[in-house]
Write the structure tokens for this entry.
Amino acid sequence: MPDDSAQSGAEPPRYEQSGSSVIFVLGGALLFSTVLGVLFGYRYVEVMRYVRDTLDVPTTPLAWDARPLSPDECVEQALTWASECHGIKSMCDAYVDRVIAMCLESQPRDAYCASVHDTAATTRFGYRECALRGVRRNLDAEACAQAYRAVASYCATFAATNPDGSGEAPR
């Protein structure tokens, strides 16, 4: 069956691009990108200000400077610090390692690290403790797991620098 449009001389419809629609789409993308960039920058500054005010130049004494804390209390301090951090959550969680290290370095940990040496090297280290804390998946589970990984890393570094179990904690 022959095509009637070819015989009748009718052309297929043409779609012309309007210059204003292209400008509208590009303008909208530029506006959205700008708003997102400003928001991201603001949240980044919030995190960095919090780090400065609580870790670099604290306005109040750090908890581990007031009294010796156990490693579990150090984890609790790190989780509290991360939950009070307002800004980009992944950046706040990234500082959990630093909070743990600062807390653990506040006193000798050779006995603790020796007691957890075998379990700290496993992937399950801290899993039960995080579950008992009632951490919420996708909210604070990452920070809790990272805190226990930081404790394990601290103890591994301590064991590597003090193979005989003597000496001070790594700094």
Notes: The radius of gyration is 28 Å. The chain is about 65% helix and 0% strand. The chain has a mean pLDDT of 83.
